[in-house]
Amino acid sequence: MAHSKVLPLVFLSWFLFLQSTHQLPNSQTQDLYQLRKHLEFPKALESWGSYYGDLCQIPATAHMSISCEGNSITELKVMGDKLLKPFGMFDGSSLPNRTLSEAFLIDSFVTTLTRLSSLRVLSLVSLGIFGELPAKIHRLYSLESLDLSSNYLFGSVPPDISRLVKLQSLMLDGNYFNGSVPDTLDSLTNLTVLSLKNNRFNGPFPSSICRIGRLTNLALSHNEISGKLPDLSKLEHLHMLDLRENHLDSELPVMPKRLVTVLLSKNSFSGEIPRHLGGLSQLQHLDLSFNHLTGTPSRFLFSLPSISYLDLASNKLSGKLPFNLTCGGKLGFVDLSNNRLIGTPPHCLAGSSGERVVKLGGNCLSINISYDQHQEFSCEEAETERKQLQGRKIGTLIAVISGAVLVLALVAIGLVLLCTKRSCCCCCSRGKSVPQTRLKILTDNSHTSLSSEVLASARLISQTAKLGAQGVPSCRSFSYEELKEATVDFHSSRFLGEGSLGKLYRGTLENGSFIAVRCLVLSRKFSSKSIKSHVDWMSKLNHPHLLSLLGHCTQTSGEHDHAATILYLVYEYMPKGTYREHLSESCSEKILTWPDRLAILIEIAKAVHFLHTGVMPGSFNNHLKTNNILLDEHKIAKLSDYGVSAIIEENEKLETKSETNSKSKKLAKREDDVYNFGFILLESLIGPLPTTKGEAFLLNELTSFGSQDGRQKIVSPTVLTTSSQESLAIAISIANKCVLLEPSARPSFEDVLWNLQYAAQMQSAADAERKSDTSP
């Protein structure tokens, strides 16, 4: 009995002891509050002001978390809201509403940080931190992960960062670092993730990176790195390589065998695509577009066991693809456009289908839809000229080499004769040994030079001969006259609709291709430089489920209240119209089944996830609606008007007062992409939202999803008859979380995408079971 009374007291004492031993020392608490002051009290840290307990125990949010072990802070993550980057260069000065104020001193800030010497994870993202990163950052010697992305850090990365020997992940994306990438990074032997995207790094590719044996992810895209890309085969654990938009101009090197993703577009790589890429059995995503690659693509590229995305557009690829070429079962996207290919495409590339998107425009292929193909003789002439020029260059080079070898041979013979003559007066053995040795050296050197340096020069001249005008760019400037002719002077018969993002027209270009033209009326204060920056950003986005931006045109108009700038955005035309049109029960010939709707939702979720995480700066408020999802002739979905919201928001800032701005910012903060996607999911379940009813109607309908009877009443009959209970329940759960939860508690788009794919798997399993039950 006495035992039972003592036991609870022991547990209570033990608990209180643990609490006391894990109490954060006052000095570290003060350091945290000092950091909050340095960062000028960001919204992510608002909860600190009203929290009076141990900061180690403060609940984590989507934008802030603290972890402690013992009486030390081991993890600090803060995500700010300064996401908008200035277009163009950053001069290092404070920018209102984008960086911290002029009072911010990065040296003092880092000094305070280094007092938290037990930190293992430090993430300070989108906080407006600006200045040159001090070398004293190396004092955080316990760091295993450092993320300072999306700030305004500039200058060189301090070499002392290589003293953080425990570092496993280094992310400095989206800053303004310049100079060379430090060539001492091989000291970071534990490093697995190195991401320096979207900076101003220049100079050669650092050879030290090739010696970081544990590296799995390497991203240096959107910089100004130039020269040769070295042999990467020693990076045996590398899964992801992203070097897009640099100035690398060598042949493609030997690649590691475990690569899953290779992104090398928009460089100046030359030569043929090496055959060793056929050994990359795990490769899923290969983008070599917008380079100077030549030759005929080998069949192995298309039949890699894991390949799903292959982009070879805008190179100098030529010749005929093998007619019996086979495509891998997972290959879903192929782009060979704007090359010099001839002949008939193989069967598996004959055109887009429900399971594969294929782009072949801008070649000389014999296909049914030939309006976007050149005449075959033009590709053959270009190839013939290239070969003739290459032959002349190599012939000249061989003549020079032959002449040099002949001269060397004559010199060698002369030396032999001279030494033979002298041997009559000198010791025979000594006189003969010297010229024989010298002759051997000359011959060996000549041979070595011919086999390496000279032949390397021959390759260089050969590749130089192959250079010419690059392929037609995917985005170009249109003249106003072209667009007037295409749309019949913007005639009402070509009018497709009007929304908050401007009027939309259908057009036909001179070559017969169909286009859609979005007309945006902008303030006269909207600068042409800013327009160019927005359009350049949109034109760089390359995703199979984003509507392709073909070009733009600007025109000054006086028809409005004040002189305004009209921005015309030219897109590819989608013949099947909007997703919304295919959700109504009143159009039985158009209506989509639930599996079709799920497939479209997954495609759009992939596109939005790409906009959030695959580009810098990311696009997080894309005004997602069922009207902005368009379907092509194969009912493949593409998201339209992405990026346009940023133009509209900037235009509104130029025209409205600050009070209106602050109000719209609060609204935008609640109505983010996840929230709006939840409503798209709801409309997919119950049908298109009536124009007379708003979001409140849909929110009210959500309450009926709780019971089976409620679902029977409001879910679209087509959805009910073509869906499984499991996939329907998952979709309803996602919609609830996207719409009803507070912004900080909503799922990420990655979570949304995962759950949709899981719902599709459940649906596929149910369909297969239903089919087996009905089969005789």
UniProtKB/TrEMBL annotation:
A Gene Ontology cellular-component term: membrane
Residue intervals passing through the bilayer: 394-418
Domain spans labelled Protein kinase: 490-759
Gene Ontology MF terms: protein serine/threonine kinase activity
Top-level taxon: Eukaryota
InterPro entries from the UniProt entry: Kinase-like_dom_sf, Leu-rich_rpt, Leu-rich_rpt_typical-subtyp, LRR_dom_sf, LRR_R13L4/SHOC2-like, Plant_LRR-RLKs, Prot_kinase_dom, Ser-Thr/Tyr_kinase_cat_dom
UniProt keyword annotations, A-Z: Glycoprotein, Leucine-rich repeat, Membrane, Repeat, Signal, Transmembrane, Transmembrane helix
PROSITE patterns, alphabetized: LRR, PROTEIN_KINASE_DOM
Pfam families tied to this protein: LRR_14, PK_Tyr_Ser-Thr
Keyword Nucleotide-binding: no
Topology within the bilayer: Single-pass membrane protein
Compartment annotation: Membrane
Signal peptide range: 1-23
SUPFAM superfamilies tied to this protein: L domain-like, Protein kinase-like (PK-like)
Listed Gene3D superfamilies: Phosphorylase Kinase, domain 1, Ribonuclease Inhibitor, Transferase(Phosphotransferase) domain 1
Name of this chain's protein: Protein kinase domain-containing protein
Species of the source: Eruca vesicaria subsp. sativa (Garden rocket)
